[in-house]
Amino acid sequence: MTGLQPTAGIHLGNYLGAIRSWVALQEKAESFFFLADLHALTVPQNPEQLNHKTLDCIAMLIACGIDPKKSHIFVQSQVAGHADLAWILGCMTPIGQLERMTQFKDKSARRGDDFIGVGLLYYPVLMAADILIYGANLVPVGDDQRQHVELARDLAVRFNGIHGNTFPVPEAFFPPNCARVMSLQNPTAKMSKSDPSQSGTIFLSDSEDVIRKKICSAMTDSGSEIRALDNKPGICNLLQILSGIVGKDVSELEKIHGGLQYGKFKEVVAEATVDAIGPICKKYFLLKDQKDFLLSIANEGRLAAQSRATEMVSKVKAKVGLL
Ligand code: AQP
Q: Which of 69, 72, 84, 161 could form a disulfide with 304 if both were Cys (CB 3.0 to 4.6 A apart)?
């Protein structure tokens, strides 16, 4: 069980940090992948675009290799029960634990003096409900979601302690290479859909030329060595990206490419990225306008998810004493 916010296109961080491991895991277990449109509402959205982007993300997930015949793909808001369970779990969550969440602090700081809704603070509780409602065992996510999965585990343990065994305690799963991809323009911040500088984010729908341009103009560091050192966040990030793409350890890549100039090394990373993303992008453009097909996938996913969600929410409501 895991999800993705349909707030903008899917980027290289989402792919290397999360989606690629989803594709592998769907071969091993019954899998639920959802478009987290309720989470998207935690910051202001254009309603028409949100609608469109939700379908678009389904097309991209399939293009990345999520197979609707093997996995359930659904839209969060179309399954009743997530918000009910989030309310019940929220009543057991200390406010301080939510206020300490790194993502809340980052996202609220980024909004500056703009409106910050309660939803942004409550986001991790809804995410805990998304996970626990399906009795999920394994939650494959990028490293930035570590704290949120930890909260889901805490809440499962707390609920089970009070009301008896109800939820399996879920484990987070992080990909072995490249669990966190950083912005190409600010390599100390994660690559993000909502980064105001779009040149720091590689979208899977970017053309080959745009990918090459973004990588070749990535911010690098002083010096000229291709080494993953603390004072070289730009080169570290490029090495991590290459490691995620080619499946080799960073130390091995340092040996292979250590003799290159920064410019040449960027070209290597750019070509590897183009090779990895190119086929996905082609498939996505074939699928993205097939609205009826995409809606039918979401509907099949909804039916499978709803029966599981209803069962768990009924059990939880009875345990807490709701009539
Ligand atoms: N930079 C990243 N590196 C590795 N993994 C990442 N993920 C996100 N960014 C990176 C993982 O992708 C999955 C889906 O993420 P999401 O779409 O739900 O939302 P997010 O983490 O909030 O991603 P963004 O791009 O930062 O969105 P905005 O800008 O809208 O807030 C998750 O498993 C996540 O860990």
A: 72
